[in-house]
Each structure stands twice: as structure tokens, then as C-alpha cells.
Amino acid sequence: MMTITHRSKEISWLSFNERLLQEASKKEVPLIERLKFLGIYSNNLDEFFRIRVAILRRLATIDNLVLAEGDTPAEVLYQIEQTVVAHSKWFERIYSQLLKELAEEEIYIINESQLSVEQGQYVTTFFKEEVRPRIMPVIIKKSQPLPSLNDDAIYLAVVMTKTKKEEYALIEVPTNILPRFVILPSNDYKRYIILLEDVIRFELKDIFYMFSFKTIDSFIVKLTRDAELDLDDDVAESYVNILSKSLEQRGSSELVRFVHDKHIPENFLALLLKKLNFKRDDVIIGGSRIHNFKDFMGFPSIGKKHLYYNINSPLPHPDIHQGEPFLAAIAKKDILLHFPYQSFYHFIDLLREASIDPKVTEIKMTAYRMAKNSNVIHALINAARNGKKVTVVLELQARFNEQDNIQWGNLLTREGVKVILGVPGLKVHSKLCLITRKEEKILVNYACIGTGNFNETTAKVFSDQMFWTANPLITREVCKVFEFFSKNYKIGRYHHLLVSPFTMRYKMIQMIRHEIQAAKNGMKAAIFLKCNNLVDNEIISKLYDAAKAGVDVRLNVRGMFTLLSDSVEENYSICSIGMIDRYLEHSRVYYFFNSGKESLYISSADLMSRNLDRRVEVTVPIHDPKLKKELLDFMDLQWKDNTSARILDNDLTNNINNHGSLPKITSQLAFYDILQSSRKE
């Protein structure tokens, strides 16, 4: 009998998303922020279906396939549907409660039947001027196929009833053009909001005036398509060829989920499902009147301050001084930046300085996900205009950012920047920038190595680190990585950086083994790992061995987590937590006690097979004692967090990591306070 040593990564991911529902239900979280957590939950779930469920559906076409955790793809799909349905019911209860709390704050989300006369006049005018020109109803006929429907949209499914006949239509709600939330005028201090689909509902008779009907009604429907991305990024190697062939034969992307207003008439629902080729055993979820809650991430900024998180302004770094060149500061000492606690604009200012510094000769950078109007890209363009040699390694397979990156690539090429479009067979996920400067007739390199994207927008809400150094032991190896990008056959030797897919897996296993041997010899041994996802079977197996040998293993994993943290039979227990708070925990930090020499790294790589074997990732050691202490303080605060850290037990109960009578510790706020205090020392 096969021994199951880990859980389904899909089910563990749903447990992570459940933690967002927990935040949305916490009274201590400000009210509007709780609405935004519902939006994040919804957005995440859409992506989950586009990718993970879509892959499982493809795997389900392979006969007699059993996944590593012991279930068939069909069994995991069933577990997913059961979990999602349960979460959906909880979601609706939370939303209903939030509506009541909004009303207590004199904020009302109303529908088309609740408008006053004055509000109705405003909605009619808004509809005629802004909405009607942007909607194109599609009449549904039983004898004709539906046009292709977008998976990032919501539709009003309209039914017009005559005496013995019904007419059907679909209207795409144009939330890609117009705001989802329309703020209505008010004569008092109360605030009223109507959703865009309810604006359309208010004017349904005006839209379909040429039809003779007794009644007209509408119901929100939404579908999710297979993203058809990264087959070899998420699927075992042995299945890739089979699945790739099936995709070639299939053509357009398949549908993986259909959600609808549970009050839609059965005959209309059956007609839609038939035309969309859905079967009753597919993922079909009836829910509330509202769908596409992802838009709630951008809920209007109305209401009093206590409805929002207090904004902590990004701190200037204590080693960066106004009027002193950035590169001179890096030459003096290594610098570690913590986002969003410290300002990402330090990096943009560094690029701006390099673009006009007459001694800077070259800038190289990797680009994965960039901000919409990226100041980083514009700084690189400015460098090229000033005669610098600029190279950008642009990953075209950045999930859901492919079109943006193509456009950035075209712009950079037009401006004279050398653009390298990734590496064949690998995805470039490393976060690297290399600046070369001529000093005293010698070329000196400065490197920036990060855990997150060079993106000023996400740096405001993602918790990440970026390391700046002029240490030639590090910068020489960063140069080797860029040489590999330009000459894929030239694989360098790395003694300091851990580079996937060449050395990182081997070095990580080697460091775990060292801790195991130390524990067996009766010495202190410790492994502290912080990442977004921990699902690699080999790494997990070695962590089990370490825990059984007596190594102090602590894991801080935000997302997918397939390790089983406790086993009575095998006599091990691994302290495991997952953080959900105001900032998205995105940094990867890896610590090994190393017989007292303490090896500490930050990385772009999660502990997943794809990151270790099929991506170019860079992990950099932190040597400076002060910077080590900063990172260890950061890690330690999160271990002590008893408001936002959840215990990742075998049953994925998501209980808060409560330390009894100890004072409340919210690690993200506490770390900001530490960094703020360090500026005053």
C-alpha cells in the first residue's frame, strides 16, 4: 500500500484562499478592507479555475491516472467542487453581514428597485450618456450557436416573457470600460452606490423596447475558461506530450466553470448550458445576484478613515542619503530594502541616477511583471537615450502578462534597448539588475537581486526584499547569469549564488542534509523557510527526515502547502504557519543554522518543482551581520504573530497561531515600527 506523505496542492491552495474569507469576516479588520478581501478571494478563485482546475480536467482524460497524493484527478475535482460550494455559502453570509455594517456607516449598496425618483433620473441619464453606447445585446436563438463569451466578464441573461413564448438575450456588462460602482447623488450625508449591471437592469425596457413582452427579468451569469498556459510548468513531465496533443486537436479553450444567479429559470439555464456544452456534472455553481466580486478590490474610497487601514508611508532607507550617489552608498556597504515598509522609489531613483551618470556604461535587467505605466521601463529607456548599453531579459510567458510584455518589448526595441525574449525551454523568473560603471579605468559592477518583481505598483502591497551589493563575489556570478541569457549554452559555475535550474535544488538538499547530520551528532540544527508555495516532493521528503532527526524545522508558507506537519507514527512535528494580513507576503527567505555559521538567503524561487527545475531563479546569500539580524527579526516576528498567522496543521483548520495570554503581535505593523526606530538610532 502506498504511504501518502503529502496532500493535494489544489486543496491546500483552497485552504489558503479560505484564509482570505477569514480576514473578510474579522471584526478587527476595517470594513472596506474586508470588502476588498472578498474581492481578492474572488480574483484568486477565477485564476485557480483557469489554471489548476483546467489542468486537472485535462489530466482526467488520461486513463487510470493516480496523482501523487493517492487520488485520481476526478476525485480531486470532486473535492474542489465540494469545497468551493461550501466557501461560496460562507462568502454570501459574510457579504450579507458587510452590507449591514455598511448601512450602519450610512453607506448603502442598492439595486434598481430601491432607487428614489431623483436617483432614478440620474441613473437614466448616466445610462443614456455612458452605458447604452457600450452595450450590444445578443439575441439567443435555439437554432443558432452562441458567440464566443469572454471569461473575464459578467453577463446579464435576459428573459422576456410573452403569453406563450419567451425570448432570451445576453448583455455583456462593460466593466472593462466603465466603473462597476456608480456613486449616486445624495441630498444628505448618506452615500449610495449602485452596481453597473443594476444600472442596465433599470433600463431593460428601454433596451428591448421593440419586443412585445409582458415581463422582463435578468440574471447574472459568468463563465471561466481554461487559460491553457504552462503545461510543463505545472504537470509531471510524463503527461505533457499527451496533453499537448489533445490541445492541438481541440482548438479553442474549453470552459471549466459556470456560475449563475440561483434564481434563473431552469429552462433558460438548461438552454445556456447546452449551448456552452456544459454537462450537469461539470462545475456549475448557483449563487447570489452578484458575481465577479474581484471588482470589490477597487471599491470606491468613500466613508470615514476608520473604515480603512491606517496608511504607513514608506520609510526612506537609513543608508541612503539625499545628495549622496546611490552607487557610492552601495560601494560602502550592502543594502537590504524591505517593501512596502521602505520606498520602492529608491530603486527607480537608482536607475535614474545610472541613466545619467557619465561613468555608467551598461545596465542589464530581467523583467517579468511590470507596472502598467512602468517608471522602471522608462528609466531604462532614458538610459539608452543617454548612450548607455541597455539589455532587458523579457519573459514573454509571464502568466496573464503576455500581451503587456510584448508591448514593452516592442517599445524597448524601438528605443534602442537590446531585448532578449527569455530562454528556450525555461521561464526567466529571477529578479536581477546589473549596473556597470567605469571607475579608475576599471569596470565595477553593482547588483540588485530581489524576491519580487521590479514593479512599483505591486511593491506597495507585496512584502518583498531587494538586496543591493558591489561585492565582486556576488556581482561576478550575476554577470554569469546574464551571460547565460545571451548565450544559452554558456552555463557558469556558481559558488555563492544558488541558481535554478543548475545548482539550487542540489545546494538546498545539501544544506538540509548538513542540518540532519548536525542533529544526529547532538549539535544544534535549525532550518527556517519562508516562501509562497512548498510542494516539491524531494524537498518535503528531506524536511521530514530533518524533523525526525531532531532539527528545529519551522515553515512559513503563504499559499500551496502539501507537507503534513505532524505524524505520530513517524514521530515528528514541524512548526508551520501561513500569514494573511494587509500586505501580501511574497518574500522567500531561507535560513540554515550551519553549525553556527548561519547561512541566510533571499530568493525569487518558491520550493516547487517548476521553480527548481524549469525556471531561471536566483537565490543570494546575505553575509552582513546587521542585515542578517534584520531578516531574522522579520522572520521571528512572524513566528510570534498571534493575530494574522495561521497554524498549518494536517487538517488545514486555519486556526490563528494564538499564544494564549501573550500581548497581541501583528508582525507587519511591528516590523514597520522596528525599521522606523532604526532610522532614529
Describe this protein with a few key phrases.
single chain, 681 residues, alpha/beta, polyphosphate kinase like, Endonuclease, Chain A, 9-stranded mixed β-sheet, 8-stranded mixed β-sheet, 19 helices, globular
Task: Give an overview of the whole structure.
It contains 19 helices and 28 strands. With 681 residues, it is α/β, with parallel strands linked by helices. The strands form 5 sheets. Strands 14, 18, 19, 20, 23, 25, 26, 27 and 28 form a 9-stranded mixed β-sheet that branches. Strands 10, 11, 12, 13, 15, 16, 17 and 24 form an 8-stranded mixed β-sheet that branches. Helix 16 (537-549) links the parallel strand 19 and strand 20 (552-557). The termini are far apart. Residues 231-252 have low confidence and may be disordered.
Query: Can you tell me the CATH architecture of the largest domain?
Result: 2-Layer Sandwich
Shape estimate: globular
The number of helical runs is 19
Strand content: 15-25%
Largest sheet, described in full?
9 strands, mixed
Mean pLDDT: 91
Task: Please state the CA-atom Rg, rounded to the nearest Å.
Answer: 27 Å
Broad CATH class of the largest domain = Alpha Beta
What is the CATH topology classification name of the largest domain?
polyphosphate kinase like
Q: Strand tally, please? A: 28
Distance between the termini: 61 Å
Let me know the CATH homologous superfamily of the largest domain: Polyphosphate kinase middle domain
Helix content: 25-40%
Domain count, please report it.
3
